[in-house]
Every structure is written in C-alpha cells, then in structure tokens.
Amino acid sequence: MEIKLKGDKEIDNIPSLKQKALRINLNADIYGTFAEIGAGQETVRQFFRAGGASGTIAKAMSAYDKDFSDAIYGIGDDGRYVTEARLKKMLEHEINLIEERITRAKHPNKIFFTYANTVTTIDFAKRYKGHGWVGIKYQIEPDQEYSEIILHIRFKENDARLQQETLGILGTNLIYGAFYKYNQPKKLLRYLYDHLDKDQIEIDTINFSGPLYDEVDNRLMSLQLVKNGMTDAVMFDPAGNNVLPARVLYKKNILALRGSFRPVTKVNMDMYEKSLEMFKNENRVNQDKIEVVFEITLSNLRAEGEIDEQDFMDRAKLLCSQGQTVLISNFKEYYKLVEYFSQYSKSRMGLSMGVNNLIEIFDEKYYRHLSGGILEAFGKLFFKDLRVYLYPMKNEDGTITNSENLKVHPRMKELYKFFKYNGKVVDITDYNPDVLGIFSRTVLKMIANGEEGWQALLPKGIAELIKQQSLFGCETEEVIHKNP
What pTM was estimated for this model as a whole? Predict the structure, then answer.
C-alpha cells in the first residue's frame, strides 16, 4: 500500500514513531551514532524512549558550542554552521570514528550508520522561521560502501519547541526509510511525512548517493518533492545537479524565463540573450550578481492529468546542456513566482516573456480565488522592483505585435496602460526576425511525423542530443534504417 501524506484520504497502517524506532533498535545488526546540532537531540530521543536502544546507539552527541564544533569537525570555508558542507563533514567524521573504534573481527555482521543534522530554529523576533540540513550515511551489508541521503528543510511552525519535535519525527522517518525502504526511493520520500503535515515542514532539496542509489536520478526525486506538495519549487544547475534555491538566488538580480521548452528553440535563446543584455544595463542591476533562471511550471509537465516524468527529463537535459539553471515550480501565476524569488532577494528582477504570456497575465479568470482579484495579484507582481521584457510576436499576415499594439480585455485596458507607461513593461527591440516564426509545438509535430528540417530550428547541439537520446519520440538513425 502506498502511504499517503497526512491530509490525503488514506493514512492507515502507518507505523507509529515508537514502532519505527523499536524496529531499528531490535535489529541486532544495525549500529550507529547520532550527531544533532541546533534543535536539541530530538531524533535520538525517539530511539531512547522506544526501548532496546543499547544495542543500536553507540553514541549521541550535540556539539552546540561553536569552538567545540570547530574542534571536532573543522572550520568551514565560509564560517557558517548550517550548511550542506558542514553536514557532510559531520557524517564523514562520525562514520570514520565508528570504523576506527569497532572492529569488524569482533562484529562481523554489524551494519553501521550515522545520522546527523545541523539546523537553526525560529529566532526570538520570529522574523526567520529557521532551516537546516539533515542526513544519514549508512550501509545495509557489512563492509559495503556507504550510501547517503541528504536533504534540506525549512521550518514553517512559529514555535521553537514545535520545530524541535517536528525535526525529531522527520529524523526518525528518515532513518527508518533508509533501512527499510531504500529499494523504493519514491516511497521513502513520501514516508518522510509520516505523522507530519505539509504546513509543518518543507523539504526543498534531496540527494541520494552511493551504491544503493546508483540508479536513482536525483532530478526525478526533486520532481517528486514538487509533485507531492513537499515544496513549491526545485532547482538544477547547468551540470544537472540538484541545488538549493536559496543558495543560488540569495541577494541576486534574477532574470526569469517561463516556458514549456519542449524542446528549447532558437526563439527561446534569442529571447534569453536579448533580454539579458537589456537587464544588464538596468539601474540597480549588478552584473556580477545576475542569475538567469529558466522556469517550467508543473502544469506544463502534465500529460492527460499525470506528470510525464520522461518528458520532464528530456526538457531538463536540453536546458542544462545549454548551460542554463532550471527551476521546476508549481506556480501557475507569475505573481507567485515573483513572491517566491522575493524570499531570497530584494534586488531588481526581470521577467522575459512573449506577447501571449503577457495577455494571459491580464486575464481576470486567473485571479478569481483572490479576494482582491487582479488588483491584488498585480500589487504583488509589480510592487516588487520588477520589469517585464516583452518579446514580440509575428502574426500570420506578417505584422508584428508588441507592447504598443497588443490587445487586452477592454476592462483591463487602463490597467495595462498604467503599467506600460510607468516603465514596468518594455519591448525587446533588438530581436532576430528570422526566428520569430519558430514554435516548440511545430518542432514536436515535425519530430513526431518524421519530417525534415526541424533540426535547423533549434540551438546548436540540441538536435544532436534529441537524436542520440531518442528524446520526444525521435527515433535514432539506426532504428529508422531498420524500420524504413
């Protein structure tokens, strides 16, 4: 049975925290340490209270004092303590101590683990709710190379004690899942929320590594975070690795491009290049602190009501191959995307979009759920230091539509004029007219029909990747020759 998140219909048959901890404790082979910094020793407490912990817990510690922590784990390059690098040092240090102190000759059947977290809970002024890194380094066979599960969390509760308890539950779920659901990583991910609600804690980054997870694609695991409502957005760097959005976006001038990118075309890259050039020349934009983000909303990843995971992989691969940072979000409306960015940066931002996207923004039907309707949405969107860079559209009759002649609903006309003539919407004028007629849907249709010429509509290297990896249903040349 697939475990449901709390709030879904089925939450039966979920083991209690005591049952989970006791099952670990009663396994004579599992043996390890707990190192918890910043929120008490809430995870190991669950195992002590369950009983039978003497054969499982080698050591529990909490190096709260920074000098002691530095003496044990070393001084971080950035001098910070709640970081992924710090967590990895903790895991490595503690697992090495177990290997040094426990002889395999005396305990040939022991499988070792170390669980660690480094977190900061809500501050007294309640301005920052806190966050942290949590992880486990472990094996399931003696002498096996170690595997790791590392995740980043954001607390949502407004009380430090509640955050501590939530962390203890999450940690217990992680340890239990690591040993008993390692062969089902998607389910392991969902089990992290056993006895938790999504409004208690957010998991916005997760990475699996080691021999147990050689076949796991961490980008797909990140997609599960968004799909399951565990976070609003996840991010990948140009190398295709999961990265923490907060680390990438912090105090940056952000330029975002939203699209389906199915696949990325020459018109997408022209929009990117021309809007980036304009963005660089803006006041209050530091060229050394610009972060460009290609964003795909979850709604654009659906096929017949379900997430098409392979389709997601195809798009991510192509965008990353172009050296781009990719954000996958569940934001349908642009103002929610801007609000998300505003969590990490107060610096000037830009949105690059086509004419049809801007017309959609001025459609009232997208804001009926807001008490203030479209005015509330636009207040959230344009109240920020934000500018829209509008890429023109070529019509069937050859004319060009831009910010000067686009048509919105009559009721929205004055509102549009207000933002347009206050400099919130500016035209991209230095566009390449030769690519205006390129559309992703046209390329997809040509690929599906086996037509010639679609390769010329894509950026350099993209067509080769599509053919090599048979993306978007494209057959390789070998297959085509075999099936004339």
Answer: 0.87
